[in-house]
Amino acid sequence: MTPEVTASGSSPSAPAPSTIASPSGASGLGWFFSLENRYLVPMFITTILIIGQISFGLLESWWQTFLAIAISILTELALGRIMTGQWPNMASAYISGISVGILIRSPLFWPYALCSAISITSKYVIRWRGRHLWNPSNFAICMMLLLAPEYVATLSVQWGNTIWPMLIVWTLGALITWRVKRFHITATYVVSFLFFAFIRGAMTGHGFLAEVAPITGPMYQLFIFFMITDPKTTVSSKRMQCLVAFLVAAMEMVLRLSENIHAPYYALTIVGPIAMAIEIWRTSRKQVESGPATA
User: Fold this and answer.
1) CA dihedral 213, 215, 218, 221 (to 10 degrees)
2) What is the pLDDT of residues 3-24, one digit of tens each?
3) Cβ-based burial of 162 (10 A; exposed 0-12, middle 13-18, buried ≥19)
């Protein structure tokens, strides 16, 4: 690993050889399943794509997915360079592009390109006090559903009666989110979803299994392992992260009862930014109040 470059452009002194962690063995495995490995999540989401495509023909087409990824990366490169003066890491752009390629459904090509462009642009344009409030992919999908509903739908494929694809994805997802200290968010949402599914089933007469069925689909794998656990758009407190996950599931139930088929996307779009805005405001207020005392 190369030494980190400081803000001035210089490199700090490299540690002695005896203090450098070995890339092999336990330390190497620990690094692989950690936030330091920027390519862990891209590899996992690619696994979901491959498993889903081989098993059920998950994608509308490979070319539309490639277009979504390409536009996402090109937009990230352009805006990152213009807005920050630096070349950004492409892991985030790849995740946004492949998420759009999986989740969007349209016979046309332009919705994939536009959705990817909106996703990346939102990170740089819609910000408050240096932070963006919305998960980029989720925000872009909601915008497409609102602005072009006649041209765009979302993924509705289920794993069906074949259990092994879901087991592979859930096992890998649980391991990765646990290693990066985000599993409590996923677990809270899943438990909350099951709880509200029971309530919805009792209220609508559809039954518990019918209400639980959506969470077994590949769309929800992306939602629970990537969107609601995104470190850039989740609050910092572990307790509040669990509360937000619960509130997202609660909002989703309300939207489902109103027969909104895109309930999870809209629920996160509503609850997530409100939680982020409250945390940003509270953090800024504390900094202002503590400023004179620490000056």
Assistant:
1) -170
2) 333 334 343 333 444 333 444 4
3) exposed
Determine contact, residues 191/248, Cβ cutoff 8 Å.
no
Polymer length of the chain: 295
In whole angstroms, what separates CA 68 from the centre of its chain? 16
Which SS3 state, helix, strand or coil, does residue 98 take? helix
> Are the CB atoms for 141 and 103 separated by under 8 Å?
yes
DSSP state of 223: I
Per residue in 92-125, pLDDT (tens digit) is 899 999 999 989 999 999 999 999 999 999 999 9
List the structure tokens of 151.
């041209």
**Residue 227: strand, helix, or coil:** helix
3-state SS assignment for residue 131:
strand
Q: Tell me, rounded to whole angstroms, the distance of Cα 103 from its chain centroid.
A: 12
Domain regions of the chain by residue span: 59-154, 161-284
Burial of residue 45 (CB within 10 Å: 0-12, 13-18, 19+) is buried
Distance in angstroms (rounded) separating the CA atoms of residues 183 and 173: 9
Name the pTM for this structure: 0.81
In the chain the beta strands, taken as DSSP E runs, fall at 104-105, 127-128, 131-132, 153-154
In angstroms, rounded to a whole number, what is the distance separating the alpha carbons of residues 158 and 209?
14
What's the CA gap between 134 and 227, in Å, rounded? 10
Closest CA to 232 of 128, 138, 134, 142: 134
3-state DSSP percent of the chain in helix, strand and coil, to 5:
70, 5, 30
**For the CA atoms of the chain, what is the radius of gyration?**
20
